[in-house]
Amino acid sequence: ASTGPGTIKRENNKITGDVGTGLEMQDAITTRDGAWQLEFVDKTRVDVTEHSRMVIDELIYDPKTKTGTLSMKATLGAVRYASGQIAKNSRQRVNIRTPSATINVRGTDFMMIVDEIGGSMITLLPSCEIDAVTQDARCETGEIEVESDVGRVIMNQAFQTTIVRSRLNTPAKPVILELPSDM
Description:
The chain is built from 1 helix and 17 strands. With about 180 residues, it is mainly β.
């Protein structure tokens, strides 16, 4: 899905990000005044907001076993990640990097914001599904590990947030954001 312009850089080519465009490993995604929603073959979903940049480093998926490897790098802006089958079935095989941190995903959702100098704010989100009959939301919270070159924190409570200013800084002790329930 797309709400505005952006590009996919593939080798030496720039591709406009029209809805339905296939993604490949090493694609560099840059949004401008719009936001994109990327859906991968294993049902992983990545929402990339306006003025953001990210690269798909590696995506290997076996639909028979529902296992694989996923690696991405977000270098600017806000990105929301929702786990698909790889993170749920290959729990040690999903890693998202920023200039200041590595997020090891253990089958859950999270949001990260990367500022202009590479600092990162990472927030663990609940993974919610709506029951088709009752319309009730069923939410679970998984776990992520956020690490820099000198330390790490594990987050496993909804809306826990940490900040990592650079790879040479320890991730800040996580705090839980107090958000209204309708958010």
